[in-house]
Design goal:
Distance between the termini: 71 Å
CATH topology of the largest domain: Rossmann fold
Number of domains: 2
Strand order of the largest sheet: 3-2-1-4-5-6-7
Shape: globular
Low-confidence stretches: 43-48
CATH architecture of the largest domain: 3-Layer(aba) Sandwich
Helix content: 40-55%
Mean pLDDT: 87
Strand content: 5-15%
Radius of gyration: 27 Å
Order of helices and strands: HEHEEHEEEHEHEHHEHHEHEHEHEHHH
Number of strands: 13
CATH class of the largest domain: Alpha Beta
Largest sheet: 7 strands, parallel
Length: 421
C-alpha cells in the first residue's frame, strides 16, 4: 500500500521543514558569531594583558612621529601593540621583538576595533577622541595625545583634544592654551607633560649625520601649504604657481596630505595644469626629510612644516597672508593671537597676492638676510624643550603612567570596600 499525502498536508509539512531548517541555520549562524565574538574577546584580553600600552596611528604619514618612540620602547623591552589604519605603514617593515603591529582597516572597521579596545594606556596623534565616530572605550584607562607639529595646540578642529586624559607638549605657551580652553569649557584639567618633539630630534640627528649639501647653481623653492580654505593653494591657486615658475628656480610643490582627500578636485586640476617637468615637481614622499634638505627656502602659511624647516634645517621661510579664519579651530575660543602668527614675522618675510610679481626678489632677499637667525633661536627656546631627549622623555612618561595605573588597580583589588558583598 502506497503512503499518500494530500497536497495540502504536503505543503504544510514542506513549510514546517523549511522553517526547521531555517531555524537550524539561524542557530548555527548565531553560534558561529558568538564563538567568533568570544575568540575576539579573548584575543583582545590577551592584548590588554600582554600589551597594556597601545599606539594608534590613523595614517602611515605619522610614522615619523612614532618611530623614535617605538625605538625607545623596543630598547627598554616594553610590550606594545601598534594599531594602524595603513596596510603599508612602515611599522610593518620593522623587526621589533616587543612591539606587535596590526592593521585594523579604515573608517568604521577601525572604529569598531578602537571603540571596544582593552588596554591600560593608549598613545595617539589623532584628534577628536569622543567627538565623532572614535569613542572612548570603557576598557582603556588612559588616553594620551602627542601632537605631530611643534606649534599652537589650538590649531586642531574644534574640541579636538578635549577628551584626552593627558597631552605631551613641547612649549609652555601650549600648556597655557590648554588650561584656558579647559576653563572656558568647564573641563577637568588634563595631565600636561613637557616632553619635547621626538620626531624633530630624530630629524636633527639625521641632518647632523648627513654629508654637507653641495651648493647648486639653481635655487630650490619648496611650496608646502596647509589644507583648507585658509591654505595657500585654496586662496592663491594658479597665481602663486605662475609667479614661482617665473622665478626660474626649481620648484617643489608638496601639498598637505589631507588635501589629497579633502581637496582632491582642486589638486587634480592644478596637477593637470602644472605637470611635473624639469623645473617643477610634485612631492608626496611619506618622509619629508629629503625634500626639506634639498630646499633653500620654504613658502607656507600656518602649516607645522614651517618649524621643521626653520628649527631643524635652520633655513628661512616666506609665509603667505591668507587671512586665517579661526572659525573651525579651537583657537576661535581664545581672544589672543596665535603663537604661530606672532613668531612668523620674525622667522621670515610675508607675501601677499599683490607682492607675487616681485616674488623672485623677495626670495633672494629672504635667503641672503642674516637677521632671521636670532628669531629661529628664540622659536627653539619657546616651542622645542628637551632638544635631543624627546623620545626618552615620552617613554619615561608612558612607563611611569603604566606603573601608576597598575598600582591603583592593585590597590583597588586589595581594598575590601571595593569588592561587592
Amino acid at each position: 500500500m502506497r503512503f499518500y499525502i494530500d497536497p495540502g498536508t504536503g505543503s504544510m509539512l514542506f513549510t514546517i521543514l523549511i522553517a526547521v531548517l531555517g531555524s537550524l541555520v539561524y542557530l548555527l549562524r548565531n553560534l558561529k558569531l558568538k564563538i567568533g565574538s568570544l575568540i575576539r574577546r579573548d584575543r583582545k584580553a590577551e592584548h590588554a594583558q600582554a600589551t597594556p600600552l597601545v599606539i594608534f596611528s590613523d595614517h602611515k604619514r605619522y610614522w615619523t612621529t612614532f618611530a623614535p618612540i617605538c625605538d625607545e620602547l623596543e630598547k627598554r623591552g616594553q610590550p606594545t601593540l601598534y594599531l594602524s589604519e595603513s596596510q603599508d605603514d612602515p611599522v610593518f617593515q620593522r623587526n621589533y621583538q616587543h612591539i606587535h603591529a596590526e592593521y585594523i582597516g579604515e573608517g568604521n572597521s577601525a572604529f569598531a576595533r578602537l571603540n571596544f579596545l582593552r588596554a591600560r594606556v593608549m598613545l595617539s596623534t589623532t584628534p577628536s577622541l569622543d567627538v565623532y565616530q572614535w569613542k572612548r572605550s570603557r576598557d582603556v584607562s588612559w588616553y594620551v595625545h602627542i601632537p605631530h607639529a611643534p606649534n599652537d595646540i589650538t590649531l586642531y578642529r574644534m574640541f579636538g583634544i578635549d577628551y584626552y586624559d593627558a597631552i605631551l607638549l613641547s612649549g609652555e605657551y601650549q600648556v597655557e592654551q590648554v588650561r584656558k580652553l579647559e576653563k572656558l569649557r568647564g573641563l577637568p584639567e588634563k595631565e600636561l607633560k613637557l616632553v619635547g618633539i621626538p620626531y624633530m630630534d630624530e630629524m636633527k640627528k639625521r641632518l647632523d649625520a648627513a654629508p654637507a649639501k653641495q651648493q647648486g647653481s639653481m635655487r630650490t623653492v619648496l611650496l608646502a601649504p596647509s589644507w583648507g580654505d585658509s591654505g595657500i593653494l585654496k586662496r592663491y591657486g594658479t597665481a602663486i604657481l605662475d609667479a614661482l615658475l617665473k622665478t626660474g628656480y626649481h620648484i617643489i610643490i608638496r601639498p598637505h596630505p589631507q588635501s589629497y582627500t579633502s581637496e582632491k578636485e582642486m589638486l587634480d586640476t592644478l596637477k593637470a595644469a602644472y605637470p611635473d617637468s624639469d623645473q617643477l615637481e610634485w612631492n608626496r614622499d611619506n618622509d619629508n626629510f629629503d625634500v626639506l634638505s634639498r630646499s633653500d627656502i620654504l613658502i607656507s602659511d600656518f602649516s607645522g612644516v614651517i618649524f621643521d624647516f626653520t628649527l631643524v634645517f635652520d633655513k628661512p621661510v616666506l609665509y603667505a597672508d591668507t587671512s586665517f579664519d579661526k572659525g573651525p579651530y579651537d583657537a576661535w575660543w581664545l581672544n589672543e593671537e596665535l603663537w604661530t602668527f606672532e613668531i612668523l614675522p620674525k622667522l621670515g618675510m610675508h607675501i601677499s597676492e599683490q607682492s607675487l610679481p616681485e616674488l623672485k626678489e623677495i626670495i633672494d632677499q629672504c635667503i641672503e638676510n642674516p637677521a632671521y637667525q636670532e628669531a629661529r633661536d628664540q622659536a627653539r627656546r619657546e616651542t622645542w624643550c628637551h632638544i635631543g631627549a624627546g623620545a626618552e622623555k615620552t617613554v619615561d612618561y608612558l612607563m611611569e603612567t603604566l606603573d601608576r595605573l597598575s598600582t591603583v588597580k592593585d590597590e583597588k583589588k586589595d581594598d575590601p570596600s571595593s569588592k561587592k558583598a
